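Lab notebook, bench 4. The sequencing result for the construct came back, and we need a structural model before the next group meeting so we can plan mutations. Quick request posted to the team channel:

Model the 3D structure of this chain.
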Amino acid sequence: MKIPSLSLRQTLMVGVAAGILLPALFFAGFQVTSKLRTERALRVEAPLKQYADVLSRGMAVAVWNLDRGVAIELVEAVMRNPDVVNVSVTDEFGETFVQRGEATDDSARFLSEKRDITYNGARVGSLSVVMSSQRIEREARSELLRFAGALALQVALAFAFIWPLFNSRIVLPILRLREGASRLARGELNESMASEKKDEMGQLSNALDTMRLDLGALLTEREQKTEALQRELEERARTEEALRVSQTKFAAIFDASPIAMSVSLVEGDVRTIDVNSAWSRVFGMERGVAMGTNGLRMGIWVDPAERSRCLEIVSRTGEISNFKAWMRRGAHGAEIYCDISGRMVALGGERVLIMAFDDITEKYRYEENILQLNATLEHRVQERTRELTDAMGQLRAAQSELVRTEKMSALGSLVAGIAHELNTPIGNSLTVASTLQDHAASFADGMSKGLTRSRLDEFVTNTQQGAGILMRGLQHAAELVSSFKQVAVDQTSLNRRTFDLQSTVTEILLTLGPSIRKSAHAVVSDIPADIVMDSFPGPLGQVLTNLINNALLHAFEGTPHGTVSIRAVVEGTDRIQLQVTDDGCGIAQAHLARVFDPFFTTKLGQGGSGLGLNIVYNLVTKTLGGTIHVASSPGEGATFSMSLPLKAPVITPDTV
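Done. Here's the predicted structure in token form:
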């Protein structure tokens, strides 16, 4: 625990209070405690033993004779003493014979005495007397409180007398001295601190005033010397700063140079005194390893004779340039081909050799390779061109074959759908036409036997009904042919036109009807009736066809009846959100990122080519100018979401 710091005034107050209170409290406590022990012995302990002795003798006859009245009188006589708390008399069997007073605990304020009750030498019972020292303790506390009050009054009177004297003779002079010392600390030396008093405080004030005068003289002298020293330091600082800047620039330029450089001292032998970072990178040695040695001892020269020749040129001419030599990266590292240049300079009476090592190994080997390649370059170019031409031809052939196969597959599906859909109305029309032919032949036979009005009415009625059935069937077939023709034109061309999305999707589903019904699954369209697009219905139809066929092929494996839903929602003013959703088995997470890759399929050899979704992606992103993404979880189906502009962008042949 940290003891708080006290001022002199607080310290004196605490000291006076402690000097008065502590001895008084000690002696008062000792006196009260001694008196309490004496009173307790005289007023409690002695009577307690006396009561126990008297009652043990007086109770013998009463207990023997079972005379409770006498026993009660004896006990009540003792209970008249207010310090007696409890008197209990039991017989020889431990049963309570007489008891008066309150129950007590075993605390220190209760004293008890127990005696055996004997009659003619035989024990006939026992006696217990309990007395309390509480009344004596209360009296002692009251006396102690009175003493404490008197002591507090004494302390207050002592403070009332001591404080004014202490304040005028000690506190106020010390405060004036503190204020004067603060002025000295701030450098304010004009105000005097001398005192007329002759006591210790006055002597201290006069000493501080003398120190003030001496300090003023010293400060004046110091300021003069400081000004001279400041001018000298400023001049030296400028010189040192210029030197430091120059050294910093040189060191920065030297270390940041991309060319490996070394600085060596020439004193009979050559000794390296510094290298830059590029040198360490080129030769694979730390700066500390190179310091104090030379290239010969470090083993970085492949041919020591080349080093000797280089140094001989520098010694003779003072410089060297374009000196080519093989060197080594470290003592046992790879060999490098260096372009060496350097110059001898004089610094402080010493000769210093600055060398630069430019690693031109790659350049040297590149030039060598160029010389070797020039001889065979034309042959290699022709060979590579022929290989690339063959590979390009094979790729184009494969691409054309895949596109043709996909188109033929779509055409086959379209033809099969047309044949299936036209079969019903044309078959019905053929049946009606043959029936009408039979009726006409029968009517002609009847005319030779005689024509009745009822027979004529029946023939006319049958002819009208047959003609109606025949017209409806042929009209249905014509509508189907028109729809198939539009879908076929759209899917085999990139004609741009304005079309109603709901009608176009309905026509596409109509062409896919046979394959959908054969799969036992359902395709549901939920397209609003007011969405008009200026786009390419052919690529859009191929996209929906591929997505529906992909769902029928992959989504419902092990599912007897599944549903593919097509929905469209307008986004803003210029885009739609077109979704194709199935409730099938979903797509594995490992396959989601690859579903649009070419040739990726999980049904290779089972009807899947791996190109359907890749064609979808290319048509949506390039031809239709939109985006597409897929979301799926295993067992929860898959959703292909396309964001398409209502007005498709203008495309070029390269885009297609």
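The chain has 15 helices and 16 strands.
Will bring this to the meeting.
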